[in-house]
Amino acid sequence: MTLSATPTGIVRLTERTPQISGAEMVASLVPPPQFEDATFESYRADAAFPSQQNAKSTLMAFAGLGQPEARGGFLRRAKKGPAPRPGVYLDGGFGVGKTHLLAGTYHAMPVRRKYFGSFIEYTALVGALGYQNTVELFRGSDLLCIDEFELDDPGDTMVMTRLLGELVASGTRLAATSNTPPNALGEGRFAAQDFLREIHAMAASFETIRIDGTDYRHRQLDGHAAALSSAEYEAAIADAGTRGVVSDDGFADLVAHLATVHPSRYIRLIDGLSMVGLRDVAALTDQSAALRFVAFIDRVYDAQMPIRATGETLDLVFPDEMLAGGYRKKYLRAISRLVASTLD
Q: How far is CA 335 from CA 252, 279, 339, in A?
């Protein structure tokens, strides 16, 4: 039996124009590779932050692995509490294990029809299939997990909240994460009353669980992404290219290319790569470009792919005026992931 050789070489992402079908999008709605084996048992709650154990216990109960003890005792009627909500919403900072717990919930629930994806993956599916077709696709599903609920666009968020409302009515249970609790979604960004009404209606479907802690990606890191000299970069890319497929692009060229590729296809853009190389990194000046770069980094990080770069350190690509705006938490999450990816 002949084993096929591992592909090797250096490619340009700017020369890739990936396509992805609706069926492929649906098939990809599973936890990312680093969380394909995530369980509640493998989540290590930090004793310094009791909210972590509380979040774990609450999600275990939601998944049916443990129910709160009934009150009342023998021959006494237990006090009837409020009806459980159809969804749980895990709110917390970066790197405290929200995605791990969400994936643990996905794996633990013994149901047939369950899906796991980021907010952008679900909205991309609506764009590819149409709203009504997406409703019919998910109608009657047992569980929908939504990682990093986003607010890039009020239209996308209104579509998503209406989709979730229809699914809850059909019996679907929801589990979501974000860096902002549902009643606060949209604060400081969009003041349209219709939009705010949608947000508060969505919040009624969720039990909000707060989780605190220290970003695990920074616990052993100095907080700065690594930047290589030109010689170091050339050597790193050449060496990696002998063991797998690596990309090598100018930073400005890649950022411009991302504008020509729908974010739902970024996962295909990096398909088959073992490393991403970026030359001449510089601070971003356009917010739309910055948000696309964040979406790209999310896919790179999910694939556990190291990054090698020259120029400005990647944790400084979002200037102060961007960090002071409505997308601050999204940029900070990206910085956390960039630091971890360049120091792998």
A: 18, 18, 6
State the Cα–Cα distance between residues 216 and 279, nearest whole angstrom. 28
φ/ψ of residue 205, rounded to 5: -85, -10
Alpha carbons 56 and 233: distance in angstroms, whole number: 42
Neighbouring C-beta atoms of residue 56, cutoff 10 Å: 22
Of 245, 260, 304, 303, nearest in space to 18 by CA: 260
CA distances from 114 to 29, 164, 303 (A): 9, 14, 21
As a whole number, the mean pLDDT across the chain is 83
- Give this prediction's pTM: 0.72
The H-or-E segment that residue 169 falls in is: helix 154-169
Report the candidate in 63, 142, 67 with the shortest Cα–Cα distance to residue 107. 63
Residue 294: name the closest of 256, 338, 260 by CA. 338
Q: What is the mean pLDDT of residues 148-176?
A: 82
Q: How wide is the angle at C-alpha 295 spanned by C-alphas 183 and 118, nearest 5°? A: 50
Please give the angle made by the CA atoms of 296, 302 and 306, to the nearest 5 degrees. Answer: 80
Token pair in block for residue 150: 């986003």
For residues 337 and 307, the answer to whether their CB atoms sit within 8 Å is no
Strand 9-11 relative to strand 273-281, pairing = unpaired
Length of the chain: 344
pLDDT value at position 324?
87
pLDDT band at 179 (very low <50, low <70, confident <90, very high): low
The sign one gets for the Cα dihedral 278, 282, 287, 288 is negative
Phi then psi for residue 262, to 5 deg, are -65, 140
The fraction of the chain above a pLDDT of 90, given in percent, is 48
Which 8-state DSSP code applies to residue 238? Answer: H
Q: What is the pLDDT of residue 216?
A: 57
